[in-house]
């Protein structure tokens, strides 16, 4: 007669945790499998952090909307909307990242209403121009955490006064802003103040 089988010991969540992140001694080991050409897009310090009011999104009829600049942008910022915006970008830019001249060596590029950041990141704008700083601005902090070293994102309302110094950007990219800009003349004047070098493009 065989001996009775013993029940396997129940495993706890701690048993299932990755040993590299198991908080036995209160420390978390860093992930050593990272790509050195990418960095976190938002470095949070004691003096620089996203206000909870920005990341506490609003929910309406099961859809998620931005909280910063409430009412400024009509569209949702949930996964469904992000996928649709990324699909539009991929569809439109299958042959060109941008259709305007950008100059041979741009140093400062601004992506207005950057959404998910696909134009700055996945369209390889930051990679194509490694000496340039690519800045994406949007109402929602929905961009990925890891981006090329020369790319960063800011949460801001482009309809308010811009705080960049004059003549800052060589190229300003803006798309899919229908219904979000109450005064196009004002927005374009702001952009021209930022982008008036001899080789620049708005």
UniProtKB/TrEMBL annotation:
Belongs to the methyltransferase superfamily. LaeA methyltransferase family. SUPFAM superfamilies: S-adenosyl-L-methionine-dependent methyltransferases. It comes from Fusarium austroamericanum. InterPro entries: SAM-dependent_MTases_sf (IPR029063). This is Methyltransferase. Residues 1-41 are annotated as: Disordered. It holds the Pfam family Methyltransf_23. Signal peptide: none annotated. GO terms for molecular function: methyltransferase activity.
């Amino acid at each position: 007669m065989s001996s009775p089988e013993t029940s396997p010991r129940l495993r706890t969540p701690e048993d299932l945790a990755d040993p590299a992140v198991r908080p036995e001694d209160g420390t978390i080991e860093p992930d050593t499998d990272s790509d050195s050409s990418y960095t976190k897009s938002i470095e949070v310090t004691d003096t620089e952090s996203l206000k909870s009011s920005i990341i506490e999104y609003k929910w309406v009829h099961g859809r998620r909307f931005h909280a910063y600049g409430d009412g400024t942008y009509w569209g949702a910022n949930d996964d469904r909307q992000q996928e649709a915006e990324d699909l539009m970008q991929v569809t439109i830019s299958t042959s060109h990242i941008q259709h305007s001249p950008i100059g041979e060596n741009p140093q400062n590029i601004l992506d207005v209403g950057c959404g998910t950041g696909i134009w700055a990141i996945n369209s390889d704008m930051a990679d194509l121009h490694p000496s340039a700083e690519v800045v994406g601005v949007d109402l929602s902090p929905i961009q990925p955490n890891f981006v090329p070293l020369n790319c960063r994102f800011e949460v801001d309302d482009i309809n308010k006064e811009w705080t960049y110094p004059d003549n800052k950007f060589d190229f300003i990219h803006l798309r899919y802003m229908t219904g979000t800009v109450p005064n196009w003349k004002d927005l374009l004047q702001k952009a021209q103040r930022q982008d008036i070098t001899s080789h620049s493009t708005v």
